[in-house]
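Listing S7. Sequence submitted for prediction.
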Amino acid sequence: MTQEKTIGILIARMTSSRLPGKALRMVGNKPLLAYSLERLKAVEGIDEVWLATTQHPSDEALLLWAIEQGIQPFAYAGEIDDVVGRISAVVEKAEAHRFIMVLGDTPFPDIRLMNRFLKTMDEHPEWESVGVKSLNGQPSV
C-alpha cells in the first residue's frame, strides 16, 4: 500500500434466502441499499466507498447500481457466502489502510458511532480493529 486510505465498504448481494433482491427493493422512494450508502458517505474521513458483491449473475444489478451512485463496484469471484473474503479482496484492491464496513440490509447504521471508530483508530494506531463490544456502543480492541 502506497498511500494511507480509508474506505467504506457496503456489503450486499441479491440472493438472500429470506427476501431475495432486498438490497434493491424500494423502501419509501429509494432502494434499501441507498439508505446504508447515504450514511456511509456521511462518515468523516472516508476517501472512497466500495460496493462488495459477488459474481453471481443476479448481482449484476448491484454492480450497475453502484456505478450509477458513483461508488466503486467490486464483484468477488469466491464463494457467494464468503463475506470475509469479499471484504479482504476489496481492501486489497483498493489498497486501503483501514475500512468501515456496513451491511446493505442495515439501512440505518449509526454515523456518529462510525466516526467514533475512526477517531479511536486515529488515537490508537497500534490497534488492529475497533468494533462494538456491547449494546452501549463502547469501542473495543
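Caption to Listing S7: primary sequence and predicted C-alpha cells for the chain studied. Residues 8 and 100 are 5 Å apart (CA to CA). The longest strand covers residues 48-54.
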